[in-house]
Design a protein that fits this description.
By secondary structure, this protein is α+β, with helices and mostly antiparallel strands. It is built from two helices and four strands. Strand 3 and strand 4 form a beta hairpin. The chain is rod-shaped. It starts with a helix and ends in a 6-residue tail after the last strand.
């Protein structure tokens, strides 16, 4: 006959193994999602001055920024400021954004050379 201690250990193992497997799977899925978000964010329009988004009005810039998501966690971004840069005969507007969830800072580049005043 098995001892009570051996039965308790077996029940404990049966309870903990599925919990541990679920925790490992959850962590792996989160890591995979974050990696996909970072890759998508690095290659999306406006991520760098080389990928600046050409706009013809500042309303287009506002529309684009309303739909922008954090490249780190997928959270909502809020504007913290804007600035202007020039280079290679072109003018750029840089929007600075901060994620409300993870507080990561991002910049989005817009080519404003053809903006109508």
């Amino acid at each position: 006959m098995r001892s009570t201690r051996g039965v308790a250990a077996g029940v404990l193992i049966l309870l903990l193994v599925p919990v541990l497997v679920a925790a490992v799977l959850t962590m792996a899925l989160r890591r995979r999602r974050r990696t996909r978000l970072r890759l998508a964010a690095a290659t999306r329009p406006g991520a760098s001055i080389d990928r600046a988004i050409a706009i013809r009005s500042y309303a287009e810039m506002d529309d684009h920024l309303e739909h922008r998501w954090c490249g780190w966690c997928g959270g909502y971004l809020e504007r913290t400021g804007e600035g202007t840069r020039a280079g290679d005969g072109r003018r750029y507007r840089v929007a600075r954004l901060r994620c409300q969830d993870c507080e990561r800072l991002e910049e989005v580049f817009f080519d404003t050379t053809d903006v109508l005043h």
